[in-house]
Amino acid sequence: MEHALIEIKDLKVEFKTERATAYALNGVNLEIKKGESLGLVGEAGAGKTTTALSILNLLAKPAAHIMGGDVLYKGTSVFSMSEKKLRDIRGKEISMIFQNPLTSLNPVFTVGEQIAMVLRTHKNLGKKEAFQEAGKLLETVGIASYRLSDYPHQFSGGMRQRVGIAASLACNPELLIADEPTTALDVTIQAQILELMKDLQDKYSTSLLMITHNLGIISELCQKVAVMYAGRIIEYGTVKEVFKYPAHPYTKGLLGAIPRLDVDSDHLEVIPGNIANVHHLPSGCKFHPRCAFCKKECEQEEPAMNRINDNHYVACYINEGGL
In angstroms, rounded to a whole number, what is the distance separating the alpha carbons of residues 30 and 72? Predict the structure, then answer.
């Protein structure tokens, strides 16, 4: 049987310092198939970025510790790959767009040099040929090729993000990881970036992992969605199924917090309390201290992922058929 492109199996990650231990991932299970787009959504601190960095085996060491589970790329563990193999994969087969393009672009090199560097490393192109290809990539993301000689500080936030996307797509990766790529941009530029990503995904059939706290972006770009809370996937399924029939109180709370034009309301719904403290996680279901439907069973034991139907799964004792 053909492997999924990415398989995350019961992944547990801790960050240890002399003062405390942060339980970042607590048994994450996910898979991304070839050509599939998956949205990973949750509050800040839920473990979304840690999941993405685990796929590339880029967790900060020595603080990060893999306590269990695995990440398989085309059936092979990324944690057992050599550094050379990982360097070959990063940027070529799996690329990542970061939330802040200033952290991924080097301020002392022109954008042309930085995109060309990716092409020369992974495609073995000559200097002239790499710059020509870099110019085409810039034009693909809506930037004139004559700006190859400009430096990152000469671009606006939205333009820098486009440069980052161009560099990420330089080698036509099989998987594109986008870590909240529109958070720092105004709504007009956000819409342009999302439209660009949708067009490029259609053109190259690239698999996509979109990490965000914005459910509107998920509905716009993704086929499937995974809802994350306190380092664990608590609901998973097709976007249509999960958004129309949310089965976990947390998912329902996230959807209820979105302003609606068709409802006249003086206030937005809120999820009470704060996200679970990663240093001192509660027992049982990690959401139970904030849940209005909590019962004794929820406080004592972590619920397993239950199948509602072929398109919908939930880790919740109180509801397996939607609220």
Answer: 10
Mind listing the pLDDT tens digit for each residue in 162-171? 898 888 888 8
Q: In what order do the strands lie in the sheet with 37-41?
A: 94-97, 175-179, 207-212, 37-41, 224-229, 232-238, 312-314, 306-309
- Could you tell me the maximum CA-CA distance found in the chain, to the nearest angstrom? 67
Q: What is the pLDDT of residue 320?
A: 57
How far is Cα 282 from Cα 296, in angstroms, rounded to an integer? 13
pTM score, whole prediction: 0.90
Helix axes 127-140, 157-168, angle to 10 degrees: 120
CB 115 within 8 A of CB 160: no
Residue numbers in the chain where pLDDT is lower than 50: 1, 322
Angle at 151 between CA 148 and CA 152, to 5 degrees: 110
Q: Is 242:235 a contact under the CB 8 Å cutoff?
A: yes
- Sign of the torsion angle spanned by Cα atoms 205, 159, 151, 131: positive
> What confidence score (pLDDT) does residue 184 get?
65
* Total residue length of the chain: 323
Q: How far apart are CA 72 and CA 305, in angstroms?
A: 20
Distances (CA, A) of 157 to 18, 102, 166, 250: 37, 9, 14, 32
Q: What is the pLDDT of residues 271-313, one digit of tens each?
A: 888 889 999 999 999 999 999 999 899 999 999 999 999 999 9
Interatomic CA distance for residues 239 and 39, integer angstroms: 9
DSSP result, 72-101: EETTEETTSS-HHHHHHHBTTTEEEE-S-H
**Contact call for residues 180 and 193 (beta carbons, < 8 A):** no
What is the pLDDT, as a whole number, of residue 1? 44
> Residue 252: what pLDDT?
92
What string of DSSP letters covers 272-309? -S-PPPTTSPPSSSTTGGG-TT--HHHHHSPPPPEEEE
- Other beta carbons less than 10 A from residue 163's beta carbon: 26
